Amino acid sequence: MSPADWASKDFYQVLGVSKAATADDIKKAYRKLARANHPDSRPGDTAAEERFKSISEAYSVLSDPDKRKEYDEQRTLFGSGRFRPPRPGQQGGYDFSDLFAGQAGGGSFSDLFGGVFGGGTRTRSTQARRGQDVESETSLTFDQALEGLTVALQLSSDAACRACSGTGARAGTLPHVCPNCEGSGMQTSSQGGVFAMTEPCRECLGRGLVVDDPCPVCHGSGRGVSTRTIQARIPAGVKDGQRIRLRGKGAPGERGGPPGDLYVTVHVAPHPIFGRKGDNLTITVPVRFDEAALGADIAVPTLAGGTVTLKVPPGTPNGRTFRVKGRGAPRRDGTKGDLLVTVEVETPTSLDEASRAAVEAFRAASNGHDPRAGLLRGARSHG
């Protein structure tokens, strides 16, 4: 993207964040807007597709610290009026030395327009550019998240229009340098004869080029959306909301540059029986009063199928948690977490005659024991 293009676009406004926004603020804003305007969620909505392109373009710049710094510098440069009209006797129009002075990687007028005309006498820029990072999402079941799997993801990223190779002109034609700004993409207007304001050229909208016969596919913008399907491996043990980085799976690089990375946010559906706490699985198992009081061996289901036998010792209180080793979620080192089993003493809601007689016999055998006596004494002592 040329400096003139950057000067004509407010990426902070596109994402709805302030210039002082943190990296997390930018990421959150992008995810919200990308989800709402993604072509997969709004098929056939060309307006949403255009918004998605603008959102992706803005995020590709503001999410990269180096690109963001360069963007902020370019915006400041163009807004400061350093593009000046030619002085008397000056040849060649505007002085581009100010524009490229001190920029990382250098640059020149030929770099600004290199490659647009597909050859000719202009020097093409040979500087490789890394491809954009791409964001995507996928939804998994609880079991799939623990086992890991390969999913097919349809990705959309900004790219040069294939129909016109990025020129913005209909096939067989070429754009020409804007006569109003002489290719700079900027124009200077006088404010009352005292102040001069530099702004994007109104004729070419900051591109520096004018298209007489626009490409019917991109309507003269020179940009398009590249859509492709890839197979992405989701590792075993992934957590809900986790963001996975897949190196080299993002947008292709330009002029031989490396591809960007793909970031996949995983959404995991809850399980009706099992829960998760870090690398451990959790489950609540009901036990009868007599099992908790006298002790028992109970069968506990596992996520992999089958059961394990848990020994409940006599006098187990309600809510006690037991640990079953190695029955939890997979870890990166190949080991597994544990299964945390919480017992819940079941209170019968109705008793038959025999059961009631047994409970009444137990009450009589308790010899009037009051489990709340200590509680009452403690409350009175502080009264």
Q: Which CATH architecture of the domain at 275-381?
A: Sandwich
Cα-atom Rg, whole angstroms?
Answer: 33 Å
CATH fold category name of the domain at 275-381? HSP40/DNAj peptide-binding domain
Q: Let me know the average pLDDT.
A: 79
Helix and strand string, N-terminal first? HHHHHHHEHEEEEEEEEEEHEEEEHH
What's a quick, concise take on this entry?
This protein has 383 residues and is of the alpha+beta class. It has eleven helices and 15 strands.
Brief descriptors of the model:
single chain, 383 residues, alpha+beta, HSP40/DNAj peptide-binding domain, 4-stranded mixed sheet, 3-stranded mixed sheet, 11 helices, 24% strand, elongated
